[in-house]
């Protein structure tokens, strides 16, 4: 097939960044909503269909509340999904038409909260994820450690993601990333995925 000179330029080794999407009032309202309506459970890693899921602290230590789209949380989906579409239009150019998972409200606790290197896509239920989004909910001074890093290939080719409160980071779900162990305080964030039909 001839090369299409009109194909938009994409960059899958980077993230798209929105500043100051959430202010302190919105973050407080979000936190109140979550604690009033949802329960936290220990995060899991792996794939249940393959029998590789685990809640071992060797791979992660985080507490998650799963926020399904209901009357009191619909505003959150209506805010975040257009951001994913904008980032996709500007940088990634995937086929994006669905929200693939409930929004995760995640707390990395002071006792070594972390998440080891992983991708957010893979087999079975997660293979429709194409873009991952993280919303920073904690002030950088509230915690030490907990750096969010992306690996783009090669030795020491790491990107440390900005950690300013209220900012939003969007990146391809197949990019390897991790959260380094918390040394002091807690890191709070939202995690949100959009996608469509599996890559083909």
Question: Which helices and strands, and how do they pair?
Answer:
Layout: E1 16-18, H1 24-37, E2 41-42, E3 60-61, E4 63-67, H2 74-92, E5 98-99, E6 103-108, E7 114-118, E8 129-136, E9 143-145, E10 148-151, E11 158-160, E12 168-172, E13 176-179, E14 182-185, E15 187-195
Count of separate DSSP helical elements: 2
Measure the end-to-end span.
17 Å
User: Taking all residues together, what is the mean pLDDT?
Assistant: 89
Q: Report the uncertain regions.
A: none
Task: Profile the largest sheet.
Answer: 8 strands, antiparallel
Helix-strand pattern, N to C?
A: EHEEEHEEEEEEEEEEE
Strand content: 25-35%
Gyration radius (Cα, Å) is 17 Å
**Looking at the structure, what is the overall shape?**
globular
- As a percent range, the share of helical residues equals 10-25%
Q: Count all strands and give the number.
A: 15
Structural class: alpha+beta
Can you describe this structure?
The protein is α+β, with helices and mostly antiparallel strands. It has helices at about 25-35, 75-90, and strands at about 15-20, 40, 60, 65, 100, 105-110, 115-120, 130-135, 145, 150, 160, 170, 175-180, 180-185, 185-195. Strands 1, 2, 4, 5, 6, 8, 12 and 15 form an eight-stranded antiparallel sheet that branches. It has a five-stranded antiparallel sheet with strand order 3-7-13-10-11, with no helix packed on it. A hairpin with a 6-residue loop joins strand 10 (about 150) and strand 11 (about 160). The model has no long low-confidence stretch (mean pLDDT about 90).
């Amino acid at each position: 097939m001839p090369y299409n000179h009109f194909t938009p330029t994409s960059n899958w080794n980077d993230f798209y960044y929105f500043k100051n999407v959430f202010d302190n009032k919105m973050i407080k309202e979000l936190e109140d909503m979550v604690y009033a309506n949802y329960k936290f459970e220990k995060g899991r890693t792996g794939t249940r269909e393959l029998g590789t899921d685990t809640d071992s602290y060797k791979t992660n230590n985080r507490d998650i509340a799963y926020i399904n789209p209901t009357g009191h949380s619909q505003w959150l989906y209506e805010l975040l999904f257009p951001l994913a579409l904008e980032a996709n239009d500007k940088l990634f150019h995937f086929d994006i038409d669905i929200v693939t998972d409930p929004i995760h409200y995640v707390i990395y606790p002071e006792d070594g909260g972390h998440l080891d290197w992983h991708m957010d896509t893979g087999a079975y239920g997660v293979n429709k994820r194409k873009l991952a989004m993280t919303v920073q909910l904690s002030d950088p001074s509230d915690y030490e450690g907990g750096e969010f890093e992306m690996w783009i290939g090669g030795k020491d080719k790491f990107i440390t993601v900005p950690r300013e409160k209220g900012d939003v980071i969007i990146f391809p779900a197949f990019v390897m990333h991790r959260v380094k162990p918390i040394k002091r305080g807690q890191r709070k964030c939202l995690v949100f995925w959009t996608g469509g039909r599996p890559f083909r």
